[in-house]
Design brief:
about 40% helix, 13 helices, 6 strands, six-stranded parallel sheet
Length: about 270
Amino acid sequence: MENDIGEISVDDHMERAEVIAIANQKGGVGKTTTALTLGEALTRCDKKVLVIDLDPHANASVHLSFFPETVTMTAHNLFFDDANYKTVWLQIVQKRVDVGFDFVPACIRLSELENDLKDRQNKGIVLSNALEGISDQYDYILIDCPPHVGVLLVNAIVASDLVLIPIQTDFLALYGIRLLFDTIKVLNKVLPSPVKFKALPTMYDGRAGACRKILNLIRRKLKDRVFSTVVHMDTKFREACASGKVIYAIDEKSRGALEYMQLAREIIRNENA
């Protein structure tokens, strides 16, 4: 792991974006929904936001109608040996008139990086190096991470100031985060400062006793590493996905929209504290 990461230095005097990796080993916990909805909520708090899809499944990209077969330049281009980051960022950052954040789409070729980078020195800090060239242009950079442990997830965690872990409030989802915590523990042994992480309870149904038990368990185990915001089940998320939009374009007063706005404000408060 030491050879994969190498030396990491950060200029504390440079204004730079807060980088948030949104990660969980288990699928279907609201990871992509969180990346897109939180990204839009932060822009509505007058923040400049970039959302990067780093998942080879490209769910966030497809959600926003950036279909892999029609997009030629993606996050994959950042990992080329000879990548000129300044030029690549200009080519891969996409804008849509109906969302406030900038977006970098993914493609299936991201799944090839496990093999392509296997002999590359410091392969765990490629994304960190790439972000140095664009970090001063944003207040927040959100990374939608792949669900499996590998070079992409390591790059995202190493580049991040905070790992946001959406946890569906059920027993199976709780079990699934063990692998992620194991990865963070390994990285903490070689990084200059420990990885900060915070859990976000998602898909909560207060009427279900099992959900209430799991939420209490999460809070008891993780203590202050759990956001006070809890995201409830909301069918408007599904409507938004089917329409290729974020929830604010469907119903900005819906429960889910208001809860992600609450999360955005909580993140801003925590950063300024």
